[in-house]
Amino acid sequence: MRVLVIEDNPKMSAALQKGLREQGFATDTSATGFEGEDMACTNVYDIIVLDLMLPDRDGIEVCRNIRRRGVKSKVLMLTALTSTDDKVTGLNAGADDYLAKPFEFEELAARLRALLRRDAAETRYLKCDDLELDLYSRTAKRGEGTVDLSNKEFALLEYLMRNPNRVLSRTQIGEKVWDLSFEPTSNVVDVYISALRRKIDRGFTHELIHTVKGAGYRFGVIE
Please, where are the H alpha helices in 101-147? Predict the structure, then answer.
C-alpha cells in the first residue's frame, strides 16, 4: 500500500513517515498543499493523510481540488478543529474520515486499514495456487503451513499478487513497495525477492515468482 502524507510540521511528518514505513506502507511526504496536490494527481496512492492547516492553502481546498481532478485515493484528514461543522465541511469536500489532533499513531494506522477495507469490492483474501494472503490479519499461508513475513515482505507479496502474470520492473516494484525516493540502482528489490522466494516457493511443486531476464519479475503459475 502506498500513502502520501501532506503535513507541514516536520516532526509530525517525519514521525508519520517512519511509523507508516514500519507498518509496511510505502510513504511519501509533502509540506505544502500545492506540492501535495500535485503529487496526489501525478502518482497513484491508496490513501492520503491530509492536514487541514497548511501554509499555502487549507486541506479543504486541496481535497476539493484533487477530487475535481479525478483522484480516487482515500483521504484521512488531520485537524485540531473538532466541531461538527468542521468535520462536515471536510467530508463534503471529499474526505473519507477525520482524525483530531493530538492522536495516537496506533489509532491512525487502524483508521487507515479500516478505510482500505471499506471498499466492499476489495476481497479480504488474495489467492494464487495454494498461496493465500489475508489482508485483514496480514498473514500468509501456503499449503498447510503459515509463512512468516516481515512488514516489507508482506507489502511486496501483496503487490505481486495484485498484479498476477504482469512483468514488473525493479523500478515499478521499488516505487510502489518502497517510495518515490527509491534508487533504481539499489539491489534491495532483488534481496527481498530472494528472501520471499525462500519462504513461499522453496519445497513447492509450482514456483510463483519468476525472473524475466532483463525486465524484472512476474508472479503466477507457469504451466
Answer: 105-117
